[in-house]
Amino acid sequence: MNDEELTGNLFTFVAAGHETAAMALAWVFWLLAKDQTSQERVRDEVIRVAGACDIYAEQVERLSFTR
Questions:
Q1: Are 65 and 43 in contact (CB under 8 A)?
Q2: Cβ atoms of 60 and 67 closer than 8 Å
Q3: Which of 18, 50, 61, 65 could lock 55 by a disulfide, CB 3.0 to 4.6 Å apart?
Q4: For the chain (length 67 residues), average pLDDT per consecutive 10?
């Protein structure tokens, strides 16, 4: 595989991965927007786990409903 082919493949992987993640997040936010109870549950769980601070990787594991 030459440099041009490698660059093309890497760009495809990055673009495809970005599109997939963006689409998943869009659906998550759309579904949460339609379900007030779940919105409140996610918010309450985040506040309970992280409070007003930034959320770190080790805290994400404790966000069972949100995950």
A1: no
A2: yes
A3: 50
A4: 85 76 89 96 95 91 92
Q: Helix/strand/coil (H, E, C) string of 14-66? A: HHHHHHHHHHHHHHHHHHHHHCHHHHHHHHHHHHHHHCCCCCCHHHHCCCCCC
Planar angle of CA 22, 23, 24, nearest 5 degrees:
90
Q: Which two tokens stand for residue 20?
A: 């997939």
Q: Give the integer Cα–Cα distance in Å for 30 and 2.
A: 42
Please tell me the total number of residues recorded for the chain in this structure.
Answer: 67
Q: Which residue has the tokens 């990787």?
A: 57
Pull the structure tokens for residue 3.
């440099």
**Residue 63, SS3 per DSSP:** coil
Reading the block at residue 7, the tokens are 């660059």
